């Protein structure tokens, strides 16, 4: 009998599974782990080594070489790239004046606004429940793009954890009244 590589318990076991009126016996006499859970815990965080690492590098090299040497594959790849740039891109903005300047989000005003919102909310997620997890983020209640006059208004910001921060536009719009109510409660 061997010991599990993760938890160091014995690994010899017999599993009987029933599936559609059939019985399957699995004998794990020479396995290295006592369960799938231990296997996944052991494998998580382990870098690719040995054969797997060599194989993945070889596969990547073969794909790159095929793209370079085969004109049909290269033409298809170039066509896909052309479909993703310019006005054909799904995120393309026709009015170029509405583009967000990323330097603006690193400005002194933005950093001060962010800090003020965090201080007001005591560096905690305003939706404080058991689901809270992740880093604290400052969220614009009314969007940065649509309401430029409210960029640095203290009442337009709310502190949320990563879990509660909306990821989709529709979800963001749906939560606006809730966020406004939470901010108005904190001001009282």
Structural account:
The protein has 188 residues and is α+β, with helices and mostly antiparallel strands. The chain has 3 domains: 1-46, no CATH class; 50-88; 98-187, no CATH class. 41% of the residues lie in helices and 12% in strands. It is built from 6 helices and 4 strands. It has helices at 36-43, 50-69, 71-83, 102-105, 108-120, 169-187, and strands at residues 14-19, 22-27, 136-140, 157-161. It has a two-stranded antiparallel sheet. A two-stranded antiparallel ribbon has the order 3-4. Helix 2 (50-69) crosses helix 3 (71-83). The longest helix has 20 residues, at 50-69. 9% of the residues are buried. The mean pLDDT is 76.
Structural class: alpha+beta
Average pLDDT for all residues: 76
Helix content: 40-55%
Helical segment count: 6
- Count structural domains: 3
Q: What fraction of residues sit in β-strands?
A: 5-15%
